[in-house]
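PROTEIN DESIGN WORKSHEET
SECTION A - STRUCTURE
LENGTH: 145
TOKENS:
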């Protein structure tokens, strides 16, 4: 069964710069906790529309392809699973961006359904780790630029 997890963080950068980092999927292995990321398809505006990724966490391997949908005005991006194998059955979620003072408030939402059985407390711990890695890595990457 899929559970939803979320978290938020303030980033000292404008919406556009945060979205530039989020949509640079090729760089995800450097900061987002994924092993590989490859853009497979782009939309009519040249933005990545499908991206294949692989992960290895807590001794489990998974590969999946995500389809992306972009909010207007640098408001964020959401994704759904096109294909998945290994420890992950389904991944959904998104980044929601809101202007906040001179920076950006980023909310990360994750719905993750595993293809393996884990005790509930380990699943919650893994979900939190994914959210914390995504937000912390994003903040560091954006603010270093």
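SECTION B - SEQUENCE
RESIDUE ASSIGNMENT:
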């Amino acid at each position: 069964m899929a559970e939803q997890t979320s978290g938020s963080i303030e980033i000292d950068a404008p919406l556009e710069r945060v979205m530039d980092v989020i949509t640079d999927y090729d760089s995800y292995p450097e900061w987002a906790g994924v092993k590989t990321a490859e853009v497979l398809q782009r939309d009519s505006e040249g933005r990545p529309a499908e991206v294949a990724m692989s992960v290895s966490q807590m001794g489990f391997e998974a590969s999946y392809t995500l389809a992306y949908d972009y909010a207007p005005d640098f408001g964020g991006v959401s994704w759904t699973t096109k294909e998945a194998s290994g420890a992950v059955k389904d991944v959904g979620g998104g980044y929601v961006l809101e202007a906040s003072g001179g920076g950006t408030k980023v909310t990360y939402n994750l719905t993750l359904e595993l293809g393996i059985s884990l005790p509930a407390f380990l699943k919650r711990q893994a979900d939190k780790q994914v959210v914390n890695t995504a937000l912390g890595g994003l903040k560091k990457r954006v603010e270093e630029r």
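SECTION C - NOTES
The helical segments are 15-22, 28-31, 120-144.
The beta strands are 3-11, 36-42, 48-57, 60-70, 76-86, 88-100, 103-114.
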